[in-house]
Amino acid sequence: MSYSLKEWEVNTDGRISGHEAFKSSGNPCQHCKLRVSGAMETSGRIATTADTLEFTVENVEKSRFSPRIVYCERTGLGDAPIGQPERRLTSHYEADIERWSTHGPRKSQPCAITCCAALHQLYYDPNIENKNLAQKWLMQAQVSPQAWQFCWALLSPDKVPEIQYFGASALHTKISRYWGDIPTDQYESLKSQLFSQIACFSSGSKMVLTRLCVALASLALNTMPEAWPGAVAEMVRVFQEEGGGVDGRARCLALLELLTVLPEEFHTSRLPQYRKGQVRGALGREWGSVCPLLQQLLCRADSPGAVKARVLRCLSSWVMLDVPLNESESLVHDCFSALPDPELFDTAVEAIVNAISQPDSQRYVNTLLKLVPLVLALQEQLREAVQSGDMETCHGICRIVVTLGENHSRTLLEQVDHWQSFLALVNMIMFCTGIPGHYPVNETTSSLTLTFWYTLQDEIMSFESERQAVYLQVYRPVYFQLVDVLLHKAQFPSDQEYASWSSDEKEQFRIYRVDISDTLMYVYEMLGAELLSNLYEKLGRLLTNTEQPTSWQHTEALLYGFQSIAETIDVNYSDVIPGLIGLIPRININNVQLADTVMFTIGALAEWLADHPVMLSSVLPLVLQALGNPDLSVSSVSTLKKICRECKYDLPPYATNIVAVSQEVLIKQIHKTSQCMWLMQALGFLLSALPVEEILRNLHSLITPYIQQLEKLADETPNPSNKLAIIHILGLLSNLFTTLDISKQDDESGEGSAPPVKTTPPPPGPNPVVVVLQQVFALIQTVLSKWLNDSQVVEAVCAIFEKSVKTLLHDFAPMVSQLSEMLGQMYSTIPQASALDLTRQMVHIFASQTDHFPPIKALFELVTSVTLSIFQQGPRDHPDIVDSFMQLQAQALKRKPDLFLSESLDVKAVFHCGILSLKFPEAPTVKSTCLFFTELLPHCSDVPPVARVVQEDGKVLLQAVLEGIGGGVSRSLMDQFAEVLFSMNKHCFALLSLWLKEALQPPGFPSVRLTAEQKDTFSQQILRERVNKRRVKDIVKEFTLVCRGLHGTEYAAEY
Questions:
Q1: Which residues 6+ apart lie within 8 Å of 961 measured at CB?
Q2: Which stretches of 28-187 are assigned E, i.e. beta strand?
Q3: How much is the pTM?
């Protein structure tokens, strides 16, 4: 519906001379009666006939004359006549509220009455369902054509602020999103009415005023510069004029609110890109009208604090439009003058930060240089804030300093004549970094500065070598000082203080230390090996000074510095690491945090230890000792795992001791489940380097207790308690076999390519893992026989074999036959997705080997047959099985397409199962199905059963794909559907051209929004692209937007 109304002009003598501006297309309020009372004080006022009251723009504006002229006795729309009291929402609309509660929104067309009733329900109804119903209806009403009618009525002065706010919001929504509904000849009328409403509310509800200002701002953005040139200048002029019974301070605040929201509305507006450029330019030209006003108000001694605060907010908003820094220079200087005022501090900080952080501001070097002394002058205020514990002031000043340094470090570095002032700025930021107190309890400022140090280092290192050397001479000492400051800030508080912290504060401190660690790692790039030497000297002095006692916090912080660097930087060539390893045993570890850091530091040096195995004897006893402490569970187990992984070929002399200690802590169950699994992985790495006989002997002692426990559990009646124990034991075995590999191999390749291969042949004889698996195979079958109904137990059993297959590869061959048989029995009894995943892994490794093809083929045919029966019964309840089944079929086509030549395999049924799976709501299942079809279609030429089914039923597949593209599936899956289309086009071109024509012929398919021309264009585009897959994906994405009615929308652009 267009923005329309029937207007009648009321002359000064009270006569109504009518003219129809344009026709109304809404439903009139049947209760309204036009009442004109008294003589008019102002000519040209507009009233309205009774049948169109709700459509008017002007008739509900707050009249600047008296008495009131328009009133509806039934609804109360307009102004009450003289002497009649205003009515409240709760009593006035009782009948309408009752009608709303009885009939709901379905029988209620949006108008002022129903909106008031819905708002009453939203705010006061205790029933949450009724609230949700009202909210949904109000959101629809706000964008309905009738919103043009009721929004003005809801702004009537006799309404409560909640109703007025909804009216203002609806007005903004219509202007911002449905601007095209408004005839051009109504722009002036709408603008005038908005000015009038803002003046009316300038002394009223703040939230309504703001919403009305946003509405006028949206109107201005849609009309400037053509229809409303000089919009901002006119706004200033209108509000500076006396009149309307509104005091000057209220008008001033209303104007500032309007000017503030104007740039904000621009940033969130839905203007087309070309219009955004035009409007941005127009707003930039309007700065000349805004700047003098702001400066005048900010500098006047008699300006109230509220006005100055609004001025600062307005400035903060306007500088986000990339106002040239030199044009706002004087105002920014005034902002610095406002910083001592506590009432203005926050808004002044925001304005300064926004002004100097604009990308274009670096062009104005002279202005930036003038700002540096102003920032440095804040040091006294900063120190006073630190001494008084004023965290907010510290935070604000730090934001200003860091913003200037972070955004303009290169510009200021290049001003060599002012190097001392920039160095002073850097030192001020250093003060902020080292601000006294513990983060986040005593201060929250220091974390703001960390990014600056990255930026400054990058800028210094980006200069050519000669200039870089000069800057390094000045700033390397600064960065060494920074390291000291950061390590001091990383120190833990006293034990008593730390114990008083909340868990949230401890977590924030942990994250803060991680940020410091990242900064230290980055600083190492500048300071190099000298940094490690510096840390080593400090630690050495600390540990060897017997005269002066040292706190554990200091020792821990220095070790943390080493750990931070060693975790990510190659320190193999550092000459201080041997000394560090020698110092570690001298540390008096009497604290959990210190012990944790010692462990993590040793773990970070695991690669160095692999190159210097002689040092293992110095640190390994510490790690093994820590294994017995549950408080050090994570650090000690992860460190042992790193050492066993990196140094396994140097650990045989220590193997017996490591296994014994590990076995002891496992039996005592002092670690959580995840750490137990890590420990088993560590033992797998350790045992891999031993001779086969020793591996078997250690395996026997290590897992025998668990096998015995599993035998006992297998005899018990299933219950939740022994289920957890069984899963735990199976998990331990699974993690042990994940890393126990007696021969080296290349990194495992993806499943899409050939299986990974061993780079060295395994030792003669059976693989120890296979030996153990063969020994426990019968026991695992016994466990399965009782727990086959439990997916978690079955998944744990399959994980043992799946991880063993991935690790052993072809060394697993002796078990292929019996595992295939067991999998077939498992799946035939109770189908589980984990069994299909293990089958897929078997197909991947062994399907191409002649010796193992028969059992793999039999297993593949069996699980396929069982799964097809699931599809016959209804697969919807088993999306995980369908997902794994499609992945298995895709893997079989990729690795061994001969499996589809079998007469026992119903290829046609598998094909149709895939079509059904395309319509599943689960995205992973649909992705796996698309993968299946992209693997199947290329075999039309070499696998006759595939060729037959594609020729017979390929059109059905195409229809399913088009249905998905048309809106049947999520847009996030369009790439996968495009790949199916691309594969069809590449391998079945002749058939696809015919199928597309037939499939797209029915009207409304795949979407009622499509025209015949759009379908034809899509067909031609798809058939044209047989090489460029990326182009096909783009075509499909464009087509699906058209199908869904999203093409050209902002929602689609943001997706």
A1: 918, 977, 980, 981
A2: 46-47
A3: 0.78
